[in-house]
Amino acid sequence: MQLDFTARELTVKLVYYGPALSGKTTNLQAIHKLVHADASGRLMTLETRDDRTLFFDLLPLSFQAGAGLSVRLKLFTVPGQVIHDATRRLVLQGADGVVFVADSQRAETRANQRAFLNMKENLRENGMQPERVPLVIQFNKRDLPDIRTDDEIDALSQKSPEPVYKAIATRGTGVVETFLGLMDRTWLHLEKEHGLEQKFDLEPSRFLKEVRHRLGFTRRGES
Question: How far apart are CA 8 and CA 178, in angstroms?
């Protein structure tokens, strides 16, 4: 988190992590389409010829909240390929919250596990405690054949300390819910760590309603 008291600007960094081709970039593309145009900056992405992210994607969102507080959200993805691990670690540095995007296909189970362990290791390498970083898990690609069933995902969710969401990012399904779930956990964590309500007279539940309203998600049943 970056806080400029003089300009009354708060910057929050959210990172989408996961194995190659799990749908991290597609999540940002869906958010970019769904959010109010006046709240969204340009989606910056760099891909290789096979549509894999080479370096990272960045989607900046911004809006006014509370008494003149300017909030900037920076949404990043990391490259999924192992050869870009140094880049993944660099992008993860200073993250305020993380979405782990898992591939629902059974054939990708090991890739999901390796990426999840790699995420935790890179958090530690950055001097961060994985258990203290706000995290949500998204099982994407729910429209493909031979995927983990809803019952299996629900059973995993009951065992997981983190919220678990189901998504079809190519259709925008579950993308907003995942984003708002992470925003909720991240803001509550930042409030606990930095006392933002006292500094800006912005109670957490009211702030989260502001996020939904300012970004245009209230019209989609996200109030």
Answer: 27
In a domain, 219, yes or no: no
C-alpha distances (whole Å) from 147 to each of 54, 104, 107, 143, 161 are 27, 5, 8, 8, 22
CATH of the domain at 153: 3.40.50.300
Cβ contacts of 171 within 8 Å, gap of 6 or more: 143
Reference 76, options 62, 96, 50, 52; nearest CA is 96
Q: Report the distance separating Cα 155 and Cα 38, nearest Å.
A: 40
Tokens for 207?
A: 């702030």
By DSSP bridging, strand 9-17 and strand 69-77 are parallel
Q: State the total domains in the chain.
A: 1
Per residue in 96-122, pLDDT (tens digit) is: 999 999 999 999 999 999 999 999 999
For the residues of 94-120, what is the DSSP string, one character each?
T-SEEEEEEE-BGGGHHHHHHHHHHHH
Closest CA to 17 of 105, 107, 93, 129: 93
Is 221 a member of any domain?
Answer: no
User: Does 186 reside within a domain?
Assistant: yes
Range of the domain at 151: 2-214
Residue 36 counted as domain residue = yes
Q: Is the pTM of this model over 0.90?
A: yes
Percent of the chain scoring above 90 in pLDDT: 67
Q: CA 17, 22, 26: angle at the middle one, nearest 5?
A: 85
